[in-house]
């Protein structure tokens, strides 16, 4: 938590913007949402819209793990020890890092969880952690799209590393080629955004995630999203599902 001395050094416009954001967010209903879908399904396009409209924090587990390691939090140090040995980071550790993140003021109105859970066991552990806080997952948005459509989407995708903003050379190009619209910084293509890697990732996704969807479907909280439609149409479909 920032001390009074630290706040003194925050520019007035930054403080004002955050105050206005909190006032706008105060009446918003709490929402805890999981996004599920294969690579290239459009989650990266829809997440910032959801985050802004509903005042949610966006929890991407890979980014959170890297941040925890960089900040040398107790859980981050534990994760680093596992990774240094070449071992997988345990489900309990990942859930712990999520649980830690949920204490931040930016998550007061809820969260968007992307990239987790990938298995039923992870879903059960996440539910148990949330139950201790007296909350639960409200909606699971299942981005459905045919595998054949994804190759064109994936191979044309460009990312702004710092923010996670995503672009596409055909469907959602940046204003200036190769540059982020907001910062003007260079965009990158991920090394695994190739047709060969995509095929392997899709096989793994379908094998792991189908049982997760079934798990949440039994709770009656899954909403199918037709992700092959245009981004604007998908946004409206999501709005209706969360209304």
UniProtKB/TrEMBL annotation:
Cited Pfam families: ADK, ADK_lid
Keyword Cytoplasm part of the UniProt annotation: no
Annotated keywords: Kinase, Nucleotide-binding, Transferase
Enzyme class of the recorded protein, top EC level: transferase
Keyword S-adenosyl-L-methionine applies: no
Residue ranges of domain Adenylate kinase active site lid in the record: 157-192
Its biological purpose: Catalyzes the reversible transfer of the terminal phosphate group between ATP and AMP. Plays an important role in cellular energy homeostasis and in adenine nucleotide metabolism.
Protein's name according to its UniProt entry: adenylate kinase
Organism: Ceratodon purpureus (Fire moss)
């Amino acid at each position: 938590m920032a001390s009074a001395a630290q706040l003194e050094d925050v520019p007035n416009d930054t403080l004002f913007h955050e105050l206005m954001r909190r006032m706008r967010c105060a009446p918003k209903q709490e929402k805890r949402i999981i996004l599920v879908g294969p690579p290239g399904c459009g989650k990266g396009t829809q997440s910032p819209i959801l985050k802004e409209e509903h005042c949610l924090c966006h929890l991407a587990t890979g980014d959170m793990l890297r941040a925890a390691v960089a900040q040398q939090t107790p859980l981050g140090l534990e994760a680093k020890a596992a990774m240094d040995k070449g071992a997988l980071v345990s489900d309990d550790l990942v859930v712990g890092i999520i649980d830690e993140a949920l204490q931040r003021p930016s998550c007061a109105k809820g969260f968007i969880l992307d990239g987790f859970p990938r298995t039923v066991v992870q879903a059960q552990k996440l539910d148990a952690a949330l139950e201790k806080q007296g909350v639960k997952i409200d909606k699971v948005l299942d981005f459905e799209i045919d595998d054949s459509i994804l190759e064109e989407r994936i191979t044309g995708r460009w990312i702004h590393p710092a923010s996670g903003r995503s672009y596409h050379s055909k469907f959602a190009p940046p204003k200036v080629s190769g540059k982020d619209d907001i910062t003007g910084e260079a965009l990158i293509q991920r090394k695994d955004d190739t047709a060969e890697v995509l095929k392997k990732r899709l096989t793994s996704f379908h094998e792991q995630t189908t049982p997760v969807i079934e798990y949440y479907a039994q709770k009656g909280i899954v909403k199918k999203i037709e992700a092959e439609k245009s981004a604007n149409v998908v946004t409206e479909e999501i709005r209706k599902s969360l209304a």
